Amino acid sequence: MSGDKPDIFFIGELWSKIIILGNIFFASCDVRKLSFMRIVNFILAIMFLLFAFVQINDPDPVIWILIYGAMAVLCIMAIFEFYPTKFTIGLLVLYVLYSIVYLPGVLEWFRQDNKAMLFDDVAKMQYPYIEEAREFLGLWICIIVLIVFVIRARRK
Fold it and tell me: pLDDT: is 115 or 30 the higher one?
């Protein structure tokens, strides 16, 4: 990988591995038992793996790769309807507490006229609150998924 952008061959190799994993997953499942939630958890696992991958260029990659990596592992476990409740609740509390750190940046972003700057690649360099708002939203994606996992674990 070079510079700010990942090598195109590396991305192609990553996609081929994702496709192979998908084929293994769907081949090992009985189609009659393939539930909607299994498919959703598989998609979420891939999404969190991709989130972790793009954190390589982040100023603090280790923490975000760990955050999204833990979510990917939980999603893979959820595919097989295994929900480690105490661990999930622990992560939920940790992520909520960590998201509070980014609250000032989110509030600053809400005060801005141009909300679309959140999706501008250059704006994160100019305005630190953009990066904070993005990280806050990333944590809340994780938090929502963790809440769903806690609910599903309680129903089991």
Answer: 115
d(CA 35, CA 33): 6
End-to-end CA distance of the chain: 44
Return the structure tokens found at 50: 């991709």
Q: How far apart are the C-alpha atoms of 52 and 69, rounded to whole Å?
A: 6
Domain ranges of the chain: 1-82, 83-156
pLDDT in tens, 135-148: 999 999 999 999 99
24 burial (CB, 10 Å; 0-12 / 13-18 / 19+) is: exposed
Flag whether pLDDT at 3 surpasses 70: no
The reported pTM is: 0.76
Q: What is the mean pLDDT of residues 112-126?
A: 69
Token reading at 78: 């959820």
SS3 for 2? strand
Three-state SS annotation for 58-78: CCCHHHHHHHHHHHHHHHHHH
Structure tokens at 94: 């940790």
Q: Is the distance from CB of 122 to CB of 116 less than 8 angstroms?
A: no
